[in-house]
Specification:
The chain has 554 residues and is α+β, with helices and mostly antiparallel strands. It is 43% helix and 11% strand. It starts with 5 loop residues before the first strand and ends with a strand.
Amino acid sequence: MSNKLRIETKVRRLIFYIQDIEKGLLQIPPFHRGKIWNNEQRKDLFDSIKKGYPIGSVLLWQPNERIFDKSIEKIGCYTINSEDIADFSYIIDGVQRLSTLFCCLIDPDKTQLAVDKTEWQKEFFICYDLEKEEFFIPRTSNIELYQIPTYKLIDTKAAFEFYRELNKQNYSEEQIEEYMDRYENLSTTLVDYSLPANLMIGGSLEDAVNIFVTTNSKGSNSSPDWMVSALSYNKDNKNFALATQINTLLEQLKTYNFDSVTREWIFQCIINSFGKPFFDQKNMFEVLVKRPEFVETCKNTLENIKKAVQFLFEELLVIDSKLLPYGNQLVFITDFFNQVVNPTETHIQKLKDWFWITTYASYFTIYALSKQREAYYQFQKFIADENENPVYNDKPDLPFDVTEFPNKIFFGSVRAKALLLFMLNYANDFQKVDALEVERLNLNYLFFDVKDEKGNFPPESAVPIIEMMQSKFPKTKDMSFLLKEYNEGYEKYFLSKEMYFIFNSLEKGDKKNQIFYIRKHLIVEAERTFVKKLGLNYDDTRFSSVFTGITIIS
């Protein structure tokens, strides 16, 4: 039989896709276990259909023979046994849309399929409020008569029962007519809504993946893990789906507040683990996935990403992914743990110094690609020998310059992150923490009413706190209460006795500016001392002796 690929485009009514999934004629391949939609995304889908907006096409694949031993049985809250179906197609793109529509538009009390009623109630019991004219997910099964489950909107018998119930409960003729008009209009929209499908017939798995990547470059879930999961799936690796493995990792990283780290950086870590800089291996997955060690390397790297994150969290107090200055740092540190199973104290200290130097020197910004390669190879020498310096400097006789003190606190600035991390570590005497005892980052401000004209807080107002499981501080963004009584222990937050006297002796007037001026000096001096020990140059002239640019907003 010829395995030549051909593509047909069909436009079908939505209801036929739902029926085909129920019959097992549309199946989900086993590697396709990416991120599941949330309730807002599901409601948005129905809103788009209601407005007549296009929701995109779906990509289906009908191979000449069954490619996988088994398809995914669980589609949303329903279980479908489709092993004995011969004439079927795989859903390559459109899984979340079709599974959402299927689970919401199938009546759970009429189908022969097994259904998880708890999951259905929580995620797929979408109703339409005829009064407010909006979709919603009720918290309980007790809904008003005019709140219609979506599956009833495509059931003509349900429409008649609704009309009869409105009459029975003595609704006015005007109200009944309004409700029925809205019901019938939406019902017609759903029943008549058409969805285009590109159907690939024949061809190989590689053909299907390549077409998906080409046609879905702007898709919401077109991350590389889907492609890799597909290409790496075979009889030997049928329990390995990279998308699922990454989802599991992100779930584990919640302990370290790193579950929002991008999948892109996870992929850079995986690519980098194959022995060349990740920036030299772009679009290499189709090649890497065919290597015999691919699956084992992926598993090992994912485990070591977790070790790298734990190192960042516990040793450097990067207690939230938004504090990570550069994604490259995660890539390099993961590579370190990939190769060094039992790091020494020397390893750890040099790795910490490398982190601080690369952060303060804007290391991954100042170098062109050729210099970044040199930085990569220098780091590899350090991995091989703990006595090597992990930091590459193209001008070894000149120390790196620390970039200027930030003028505001925001997480888009590497320099602002460097300052927050320094303040967190300074307050903790640069000691290691236990991730199991830390709750999260609590970014507060000495005076919450002091911002610039754009609403930004000055760095000298920042009071970053490690919120422990047993927190000592009240939950407030304004930390001025720390100045009401002098406490020597608060000096670790750059709060001096002089600032205490100013706060309690002067009238409102200028005292906040005076306190900020003193605090900025304290922070700068402590930061200068710290970075000079790292061999960095901290330019004294950058710190102005005049405090300006702050507007007090009462």
